[in-house]
Give the backbone structure.
Amino acid sequence: MATLQTQEMELNMGPHHPSTHGVIRFILKTDGEIISECKPDVGYLHRSIEKIGELTTYNGFMPYTDRIDYVAAMSANFVWALAVEKLGGYEVTRRAELLRVITTELGRISSHLVAVGTMAMDVGAVTPFPYALRERERVNDLLEEICGARLTFNYHRIGGVGWDMPAGWDKKVLTFCDSFEKILEEFDRLITGNHIFIERLAKVCVISPEDAVDWCFTGPNLRASGVDWDLRRDEPYSIYKDVKFAVPLGTSDVGVLGDSYNRFVVRVIEMGEAAKIARQCVLMLPETDGQNPVPKPKTLKPAKGECYVRTEAPRGEMGIFVVSDGSDKAWRVKARTGSFCAMGAVEALSPGLMLADLVALIASFDVVAPEIDR
Amino acid sequence: MTDGGFVRQFLDGLLKQWGVTNDLVTVLVYGAGMLLFATIVLLLWVAPLAGFTSYFERRIAARMQSRVGPNRVGPHGILQWIADGLKCLLKEDLIPREADAKLFKVAPYLVFFGMLGTFIVLPFSEWLVIADLDIGVFFLMAVTAFVAVGIIIAGWSSNNKWALLGGMRSAAQIVSYEIPSGLALLAVVLTAGTLSTQGIIRDQGWAPWQWNMFRTPFLFTAFFVYFISALAEINRAPFDLPEAESELVAGYNTEYSGMRFALFFLAEWADCYVISAVATMAFLGGWQIPPIVPEAARPLVQVLAFVAKSFFLIFVVIWVRWTLPRIRVDQMMELCWKYLVPIGFVNLLGTAAWVAFVPPNLGLATATSITLCVLAAAVVLYFVARVRYNLRATNAEVSLNPFV
Amino acid sequence: MQAVAEYVGNIRRSAGTILNGMAVTFSYMFRPPITTQYPDRTPKPITDMIPERYRGFLWVDLDICISCLLCERACPIDCIKIEDAKIDKILVTSAIDGKATPKIKDPTRFDINLYKCMYCALCVEPCPTGAIHFTKEFEGATPNLSDLHLRLVSPERKAKVMEAADEAAKKEAAKKAAKEAAAAAAAATAAPAAPATAPPPAPASDGAPPAGE
C-alpha cells in the first residue's frame, strides 16, 4: 500500500498570541501536530534603549533600564547602578546596599511569580495565575510604599537609592516573607505536585548541561540543567557575601535533569530563597540606622574607560557594558539579557515537539519580549 | 405529560373541532405543534438554563481565584447572561471571505441540535418528560454525536489552520471517548434491564445506598468512567484541547462572532447540564425522593431534587475545570484507550456477572451498597479535613458569604 | 507484574494529586475575595488607599518655585519647558524643610507634557524648595491630547509676573542711574581738588558718557 501523501502546514504563531510571552512571532512548519521547524521572528518590541543610552545622562538613563525588563525592573536598575559606579568609582553606603538587595529580591519574587503563573496558565491550569498575581500585588504594595511606583520603579540611583525606607516598612516586609512561605506550600499542593501537570512538563525538551552551557543559558534555565552557577554566590557583588541562601538545582527525582518541569520547580524554590535573603537583610538594617542611603544629586562625569558588570537577574544574567568618553553622557551602552540567549535555542530544540509542547517550552524558558528586543 | 400525550390530545381536539380528516393537514398541524412546543421549551427552559450555568460558572470560578465575578448587571449580577446574549445578538455577522459560507453557517446549528435533542428524553419528574422513548439511552448517545460533526465542519469551513487543528483534535477526542461513556451507560442499562430513562430511574431508590452509583463496585467505577468521558465529550477541561485558549486562541470557533459564537457557547454550557443530568439519571437516582413527602408536593420536590443533583454535578464540572491543567492530545488518547476502555469493559463484564448471579433480595446486595456508601462518606470526610487543613495552613480569613 | 504496579500507581497518583488540588481550590470558596471594587465599592476613599510617595501626576506650586531650572535639565525626556523673568528678590518658604529661600526669578511659562512624562521622579528630587511634586491623581484618561499638556502659568499670572518684572527692571535701571549720578558727582567734586597740572580728560571719541567710576 502506498504511503499516504501529506502536506506540511505552514503556520504563523503570530505576534498576537495568548501564550507567546510578549510580541514574538514564530513561523512553524508542522506535520499535523508535530513541528518540523520553528523560526522565531523577534524585534517587534525593539525600542532602541541602547541608543537612548547615548543621548541621556547617566542618571537620566535609570528609568530606561526599568523598561529593559519591566517584569523584573529592580534587577535592571541594580546592574546599571553597579556598572556606572564601577566606571566612576562612586561609593555607596551600606544602608543603600541593604535596601538595594531587599528590593531586588522582592522584585525577583515578583518576576518568578509571573513566570510560574504563566507557565501554569499556558499548560491549561488557569487558577495558579490569579494566586500568583495576588501575591505579586502584595509585593507591588510594598515597593509602592518605598518608591511610589508599582512596575517601573526607578528606585536605585548611581551612588545609592532614591528614597530611604518609610517607618514600619521593614516590619511589613517581614510579615510578607512569613506569609509568603506558607502560600508557596499551598501552591505546591495545588499545581507543582499535580500528576497531569507533571505529565505535561516532565521529560519535555530535555537540555543537557553541556548543551545549556553551549547555548549561553544563564539563571534558572542553566541551573535546571544541573549546572551549579549563580552569580550571587560565585561572583558576589554588593552585600551578597554576607547573606546565606541555597541555590536550587535541577534533579531527576521527577522527570529528567534539564526538562521543563525542573525549570518550573527551580523557580518555585528560588522564590522561597529570595524571601529568606530579604528577611536576613531586613534584620541587618538597624545596624545602619543613621546612614544616608540617598546620594546628592549631581551631574556625573565618569573618567574615560569601559566596564562590563553582570548580575543575577531573574531571567538569567543581565550584564551592562558601558563605555565613557569623559562627558556626562555615555558613549555606548550595551545590555546583555538572559532571554535573548534562551530565544536563540528555540529553533534548534523544536523539531519533533508537539504544538502543546512548544508552548510549554517557551513558557519554561521564561522569555519576555522586552528583554529580547530591548 | 406522559409520552407527549398532552400535546397530542390537545392537537387531536383542535383538529376535530375544525373538522379536518385530511392526512396531510393532520401531519402539518402535528408538525407546527411540535415546532411551537420545541420553541417554548427552548426559550423558557434551555436558554435560561445555559445562561444561568454561565453565570454560575463565572461566579464560582471567580471565588476559587480570590476574585468576585460579575456582580453589576442586576442584583448580584444575575442578569449578566441576558446582557451577554443581547450583546452577541447585536454584533456584526462576519463570515471570512475565503470561508465556505454554507458550511460555516450550518456548523453552529449542528452543535446546538446535538445538545438540544437530548432534552427530549431527560426526565425531570415522574411525569415531566417530553417523550419517554423506550430507546432513551441509545437516543441520547446518537444525538450527542451531532456535536462532533458540527465541530469538524466548523473547523474546516473557517479556512483557518488553527481552527482546523482544533476541529481535528476535537474529532479524535469525541469519537474516542464515545466508547467508554457508552460502556459505562451500558453497565447501568444491564442493571436496570431497560434503555428507557424513566425505567432506569424507577429502578433506583431515594436513599443513597439505593442509587446505582453505590450498588456494586463495578457501577461505582462506571460512574467515574462516565464522568471523565463525558467531560471529554463536551470539550471541557481538562480535555479542552479543541478550544485550548493558550495554544490555538479559540480553536474551532476562532472565526465565529456574534450569535453563531453565542450558539457554540450556549451549547457548551447546556451540555454541562446535559451530562450532569444524564449522570444524575443513571447513577444518582434521578428524581427519586423519600416517601414522606406529601402527595401534592411530590412533582415539585421531584423536579427540585433532580435539578439540585444536576447542579451539584455541574459544580463539580466547573471545579475540575478551574483546578486542573490541560491534557495533551497523545496523553488524552492514551487515557482513553489504555485506561478508560479496559476499565469500562471490566465494569461491563462484572456488572453482567453480578446481574446474572447475585439475586437482588439477598443481603449481599444491600451489604455491598451500604459498604460502598460508608467508604464514599469516609472519602468525603477526609476531603473536608484536607480543606480545613488548607484554610488553617495559610491562616486564611474565613468568610461564608457567597455574595460579595 | 511491574507494569501492573505502574498502571495502578498511575491511577492512584493521578487521583491523589487531583483531589489534593481540588481541596485547595475548594478551600478558596470560603475565603473572602481580595478584589478592590474600584471606583465605587472601595472600603476607604481611594486617596486614602494610596501611599504617600505615590507618583501620580505632577504639579508645581508656582509661589515657591525659584525657577532654578534644575527640573528642566534633569528630565530625561525633556517634557518640562520653563521661561522666566527676573524680579525683585523675595524670600519663599521651602516646602521640604521650612527654610527661607531667596527667589530672584519667576516663571512666565511652565509647561509639562504629561503624556510624555514617565513619572520617574528625576525632576522632583533636585527641586530645592519642593515646588514641583507628585500628587495622588492618576485618573487622566481623556479624549483630547491637549488636556494632558499642562500649562501651569495662566495668562493672568504671566501678566502679573511681567508687571513685577517690569517694575523690577525699572528699579534696577533707576538704581543704576543713581549709582552713575553719584559717581559722576563724586568725580566732579574730586576733579577741582586735583591741581590744574592734571590735563583735562580727553573727550571720549565714541561719545561715551564721561567716565566717572
Summary: Chain A has a mean pLDDT of 90.
